[in-house]
Amino acid sequence: MKREVPPQAGQTVPTVGEGAYRQIRSDIIFGKLAPGQKLRLEKLKDAYGASVSTLREILNRLASEALVVAEGQRGFQVAPVSAANLMEIADLRLLLETHALEQSFASGDMDWEGRVVAAHHRLKALEARMRDDDHSEIRSWKRYDWEFHQVLISACGSELLMESHADIFDKYLRYQLVALSYRGDISAQEHRLLLEHALERDAAKASEVLVRHIRGGVEHALATGTIR
To answer: Mean pLDDT by 10-residue block, N- to C-terminus, for the chain (228 residues)?
Structure first.
């Protein structure tokens, strides 16, 4: 998930168009803009504070990311969801993440280990709240989930691989949120095992856990009946 952080000294403040792009993208991923929803430019103009021409550029950009569908003269709609697409996204995530895990575990230093431990600590705290049926911070929960998986592969040495993983993780995340899919203690246990195997630098065992983690997430999401 692409996190939005305040600009630091020397950084450029996002333009209106970039800010609107980030917000619309986030609203699609988190389900505020639902799968299949028509995206009327005049309505979006007031909601996101951007001109019609800017919004058209934004939606075409999101169409190139497969988050929006351009319908020619009929305008745009949020990309629909399907079981087949979810399984394809999960396969691609596995391909990218298992490869990156191996590279990262081989190259990670002590600072990397510290970041992994810290990311897991934050995620664990939010998972406890989710187990207590406190969904008020669902965005924070998924942000920390994203952060933990990104930190695990952050020593892989490839910026392109990291960016590709972030994009596919966002698409996978959208399905989890559409299905309101949370596997509770099973998911938390898998995250704990990923932490342990990272500190042991055992990429083979971590990959086995990751396969169970992602496949289990797909099965759980499909079992809700909200994705066909």
So the answer is: 44 72 95 94 92 95 96 88 96 97 97 98 91 78 93 97 95 88 87 98 98 95 89
Q: What is the edge-to-edge ordering of all strands in the sheet holding 68-70? A: 38-39, 76-78, 68-70
Q: Please give the distance of CA 17 from its chain centroid, rounded to a whole number.
A: 22
Architecture per CATH, domain 83-223, reads as Up-down Bundle (1.20)
Q: What's 15's DSSP letter?
A: P
Domain 16-78 has CATH 1.10.10.10: yes
Q: Residue 163: what pLDDT? A: 95
Give the C-alpha distances (Å, rounded to integers) separating 30 from 9, 122, 148, 172: 30, 20, 18, 11
Between CA 217 and CA 209 the distance in angstroms is: 12
Scanning 132-156, the segments in alpha helix (DSSP H) are 138-152
From residue 225, give the alpha-carbon distance in Å to each of 10, 21, 83, 86, 172.
48, 31, 10, 13, 17
Closest C-alpha among 187, 146, 138, 130 to residue 31: 138
